[in-house]
Write a structure and sequence with these properties.
The protein folds into 3 domains: about 5-155, 2-Layer Sandwich (Beta-Lactamase), CATH 3.30.450.20; about 210-250; about 255-355, no CATH class. The protein has 7 helices and 11 strands. About 15% of the residues are buried. It has about 350 residues and is an alpha+beta fold. Helix content is about 55%, strand content about 20%.
């Protein structure tokens, strides 16, 4: 999976988690608000109807109950009245076919002398039921049932999910487009440019210096690639030059070739050079000692060799007690930091060039 696909997938998952979580909380809050509204409406309507229907239920006057149904009954607001035994006395036409499903709430309200309320589904439609006993002189004379249509609550929840789903799609599409654009500008284009530059280098051409627009991301990589490419270009040029010289029967001693030659001959042993002249002259000048390169053909010839191959170069003079001064040289990753002893005590490891 590519970087862009992983990035877009992460954006989708993050947006889905955030928007889904907030939508769930929003839907829960909206459901509770609508439920409280239905409960409040049913309670106000039930308390008013119970007071108005109390005399009619006590006398068993169905005509008075029918008038109450006509007055307060609405398409999304169904009513029903029951006697103290749970028998239907009057009910709106929309509620009559499903009264059997509401009978348990009415029976519980009559038996417990307390109001029963809650959501219930009649067929495919959700309904909020409010069943309350009608009490007169501390005696139950009947019951009242209020059924409010709860479909608007379900529709409101669906609208919230739908609207937030559309917001989610719009958000992830916009963020994905921006992310892909940033990846293309900041990642794909610099890598493509680096690949073209490397390809041009492989074709033995000398490309211009690698220029990265945003050095914060690929600056270090571009620098290392440039340094490696320069080293490769120099090595290739040296190899081509040496091959050309071999074709014409000449041999060119380069620093690298001399280093490898000494390494093969000595087998890793240290190189000591002892001569009658120091590689450096120590002169007292202005109250301090200064190191100067002497004008000597020996120094001129041997110093580049020692710097290329490394080792210790000292000078020895034949006196009663011979002493040797040494000068460390650099090359082949080795440098000597201590002086060699007299000529007669030079270690026999390695080879000694005496002049």
């Amino acid at each position: 999976m590519s970087v862009a696909a992983r990035l877009v997938g992460a954006i989708w998952l993050a947006a889905l988690a955030v928007i889904g979580g907030f939508t769930y909380l929003q839907v829960g809050g909206e459901r509770q608000r609508l439920f409280d509204d239905l409960e409040r409406r049913a309670g106000l309507l039930g308390e008013g109807l119970a007071e108005a229907a109390e005399p009619a239920l006590a006398r068993g006057n169905r005509q008075a109950l029918e008038r109450l149904l006509v007055k307060f009954g609405q398409p999304k607001q169904s009513l029903a009245f029951f006697d103290r035994l749970g028998t239907v006395q009057a009910a709106t036409p929309a509620l009559r076919p499903v009264l059997s499903q509401a009978q348990p709430e009415v029976t519980a309200a009559l038996a417990g002398k307390e109001t029963r309320r809650g959501l219930k589904r009649f067929g495919s439609r959700p309904v909020y039921l409010y069943a309350s006993p009608v009490i007169r002189d501390e005696r139950v004379v009947g019951a009242l049932l209020v059924a409010l249509d709860a479909e608007p609550m379900v529709q409101a929840e669906w609208r919230l999910w739908r609207d937030n789903g559309i917001r989610f799609l719009v958000l992830v599409l916009v963020l994905s487009g921006i992310a892909l654009l940033i990846v293309r500008i900041s990642v794909v284009q610099p890598l493509t440019k680096m690949a073209r530059w490397t390809k041009a280098l492989r074709r033995s051409t000398a490309p211009p210096p690698l220029d990265i627009a945003d050095p914060g991301i690929f600056g270090l990589v571009a620098h290392e690639v440039s340094v490696m490419a320069k080293s490769l270009h120099r090595a290739r040029a040296a190899a081509e030059e040496e091959a050309a010289l071999r074709l014409v029967g000449e041999a060119l001693w380069t620093e690298e070739r001399l280093k490898q030659f000494v390494k093969l001959r000595l087998g890793g042993s240290p190189l000591f050079v002892v001569s009658n002249r120091e590689p450096l002259s120590h002169v007292w000048k202005d109250g301090r000692i200064e190191a100067q390169h002497p004008a000597s053909g020996l120094v001129t010839a041997m110093e580049p060799v020692m710097r290329a191959c490394g080792g210790v170069w000292g000078s020895a003079k034949r006196k009663k007690r011979a002493t040797t001064t040494a000068s460390p040289t650099r090359g082949c990753g080795r440098s000597a930091t201590s002086c060699t002893p007299a000529l007669s005590s030079v270690p026999k490891t390695g080879r000694t060039t005496r002049r």
